[in-house]
Amino acid sequence: MPGETVADKPLPAPLRPGILAAMVHAELPSLVTAVLGPTNTGKTHLAIERLLGHESGMIGFPLRLLARENYDRVVAAKGPRAVALITGEEKIVPPEARYFICTVESMPLDREVAFLAVDEIQLAGDPERGHVFTDRLLHARGAEETMFLGADTIRPLLQRLVPEARVETRPRLSRLEYVGPCKITRLPRRSAVVAFSAADVYALAEVIRRQRGGAAVVMGALSPRTRNAQVRLFQEGEVDYLVATDAIGMGLNMDVDHVAFAEDSKFDGRVPRKLTPPELAQIAGRAGRHMNDGTFGVTMDCRPFADEVVAAIEEHRFEPVRQLHWRNSALSFATVRDLKRTLEERAPQDFLIRKRDADDQRALDALARMPEVMDRTTAPARVRLLWDVCQIPDFQKTMSEAHARLLAQVFAHLTEGSERLPSAWVDEQMGRFDRTDGDIDTLAARIAHVRTWTYITNRADWIDDPVDRQARARAIEDRLSDALHDRLTQRFVDRRAATLSRRLKDEDADLIAAVAADGTVLVEGHRVGHLEGLSFVPEATDAADAKAVLATARRVLPAEIARRVARIEACDDAAIALDDRGRFLWEGSAFARLVAGDAVWRPEIRISRNELLEPPLRDRLLARARAWFESHQEAVAPRLVQLQRADLDGPARGIAFQVLEGLGGASAPAVETLVKDLDDDGRKTLARVGIRLGTESLYVPELLKPRAVRLRSLLWSAASGRYPEEGPPPEGRVQVVRAEATPAAYDAALGYARLGGRAVRVDMVERLAALVRRAGREGPFAITPEMLSLAGVDAETFGRMLLDLGCRPAAAAEDGTPRFERRRNRPKPKPEQSERRRRRRRPKGETAAAPRPAAPAAAAEPTAEPVPVPGEAAAGEPAVAHPPAGPPDGDAKPERQRQRPRRRKGGPKPTGAAQPPRQPTYDPNSPFAVLAKLRFGNSGR
User: Fold this and answer.
1) Residue 586: domain span
2) What is the pLDDT of residues 584-607, one digit of tens each?
3) Are 283 and 317 in contact (CB under 8 A)?
4) Does 590 share its domain with 623?
5) What is the pTM of this model?
């Protein structure tokens, strides 16, 4: 029918014989009660009271840790001789035992008791262990009273399977409230943080140790001894935080006020999956105890819970369990095939899901593929023995080949000779793990292996002298557990920090603080931080403690800070340094930094943020930093300081400003107009302040030195707020490969230009450009060894550099050698402009030469090339100006006499008949006359 659920369907009658008929007890001699409700309803307490009220009893718990906890309670009430503990790895069964505390899987159902209870019965819906709980729900009964404890979600199916059960619902004793996300550093005390893997538990515990002093660790994989020792740390207040897996959700009683989920999904053995609202509620319900209210929320990267999930948890309203997991318990041991067939028996009801791939069934499949095992399973008794061997747990949860081989060895020993495990072999196997060295993971792995042998030694029919072997297995596990507890405590608990944290909670405490000679700050003898230069670095465990620590440290820190400021004022300049991030360092610690100012060459200085620095101290530090920086600039880049102070006018002033804006350099095309307008005095003035005029760049040679380059790097970075990872080129390198992410503007500020993906120092660029110009005067040219030697690169890289130098590929030579030619991008100066430049460069008192006659229109082919006027650049090339060889203010020869003559390119060439070659005239008093005469006199022109 529409709207009808599986749970509403009645059980069919008759049931299949031999399978479910035995599961339903139509006429029970005992009272069956189901006590259902959320966590903290007192269900377990009620069951223990009912157990103790009978002459004998048995109770099954979902976790061995919980079984161990309640075993101690029953022992305290009835004495150790009357109480037995049976778990997978531990069996304490006195001869007179009347009360049996067990894990659900280990309950001896062949023993009759007056009272029987099963806790967390809703786990019958769990994919991994549900078939065991379903079996107990159907088969396990006490002679006088039976009690099932669990969540109300199982009520519909429980009433279908056990219709005679009386259902009792109990409300929660305290209120549970959702408080949303919370940073892990702000979690309230007495909190439990929940994760679902050992790695995540360890990571969270490490964070809490650093921030809050320490945390206890609880996981299902821990031995009972280790788990109890960790819980004592939390219960006794040595730590205020607990990091655990979902193991705490199964009835472990601790004084937890808040549960924080660091994750809301877990790996269920197959795939990761989200936890359901009932599962979340089971864990969150650990918050609050008895009448104390509790809270829950999320932390770390866990997303906040949806409103409907929060409402369901707070109001304990959940969808009922729709299906239970089941496996046939009426097994046939005639043959291995019959055993596997009965294990695969289908469930009799559609709301019962047949359990697949249980660990014991997987072990059976693995052993059934081994011929040496199958050869020994010749009788039903051997098949039953094989199934018992398959029940040996794989506590590492890997079902590895090594575990299958161990099971095969056990079966082989039990089916030969005395049909017992050889004592020497058992001792040897256990002895492999009797070591307490190693880290946490190593010890945990050894405990998992020893737990397997603890389980085996508890099979008295398999072992010679089982009592001795059980004692030895427990002793090894105890030693490993104690070692694991010590490792966990050492790693995740800072006892001194935890003690201080509790001391800081006492508002009336008068704490004593001091500063050690090495800068360590002590409060009550505990290290709470240290001074790094002028900054206090606290080591408090959380934000609340940090305030208390800082308040206490303020009693002694101001005087120490003042003393350190005085030391900075009095120290030599060598004691202060400027790091690659523009920070002023004293004794390795930053106290100020460069920031953008009103000009790139004039940065501001900002004192580092420090709550302990009073305004007068900040002013004194700022004055000291400014004085140091001015002195530093004078020492490493005096030309840059000279440019800032230079009193220039005319074009020279504009050029100097552009060079200053570039921190010591400027692009030649950007200032070409200003350079053209320079007269001789202007050129001399620029030479006096160190500026050299090149064809590609204007630069200051002194600012290309390594220390000056580093300062230029810091000035550019402070102004732009960017600190490229590559930084300045190494000292002595005139060219380096650059990443694309490094800004070209950064290299330009350092005095480097980008050529072919490399940063090349501008003075080297000038030399390369001159070499390329000479090679390109006659047309296309090939790369020469001289070019490669000067550039320090291979031919392919130099080809890319040529493209950035204004060249382009030309037709290859006959032998296939690549060639290049120069571009003609710049317009040819007009005749009147060239004449004006010549007049500006003409020495005083010299008259203008008579204009040359124009070339006849009918001129055919040129018979000779005109000789360029010294000092005049070829068309399409900027003029090159070099500083005078002598002192800046000494006598200098006219610029046109010092420049290297160049052949004029472009425009019509006059014929020999129209204009004979013009011979240059030389000043006989010039020191360059002989060189010029040699050049022009021997050229044949």
Assistant:
1) 570-636
2) 999 888 999 999 998 998 999 999
3) no
4) yes
5) 0.54
